[in-house]
Amino acid sequence: VWAVGTASGSPDIAYAEMGVEIRSEQIGDALTQANDTMQAVTDALTGFGIATTDIQTTQFNVYQEGQPQPMPGAEGQAMPPAQYVVTNIVRVTVRDINQVSDVIQTALDAGANRVYGLTFGLADQDALRSQARQEAAQSAGVQAQELAQAFNVQLGEPVRIDESTQGGVPVAESLAYGRGGGGPPISAGDLTVTVQLYVTYRVTP
Fold this sequence. Notes:
Layout: E1 2-9, E2 13-24, H1 27-48, E3 55-65, E4 83-94, H2 100-109, E5 114-121, H3 126-150, E6 154-168, E7 171-172, E8 191-204
Antiparallel strand pairs: 1-8, 2-4, 2-5, 3-4, 5-7, 6-8
Helix pairs in contact: 1-2
């Protein structure tokens, strides 16, 4: 028999990807501005109460944005120069989801101009996983008993149990520009853990 159990709970931890993207005709200027801004963002986050171990760099890119090609018939016109682009993104772990909005706004106020994603989770999913497993096991037993009766055999003990676990995490995608105006509205929703069991039972006539 194949059975599924689910259990839901409120997230208690959040992860936000945020940082800066700077463009300049000079690579040195772009790097300096990006470095200074990210230092200000990091200082603001630690000042808010985020531990330095909960701030991890996930992206650091430097590239030259290609110069646009002139339009047909505009070969004599001056084209804007190519620009260097510096991107620096950190992953911030927020251990109090009631502070997610304030953490994002703190980073924006300090100079961040990118928020690439926000995910919620559970620091410990064991309780939900156990609850979902119990539900799946009960469902498997009911199914096995019904099948044994339908085939006129006696249901014995399980001889093999295979388990698969899936944890669904709500995701809020966003791309933020600018600062001020209060923190963004955030809804954490619920997190659902699913346990799938495939159970083989012994049967006798």
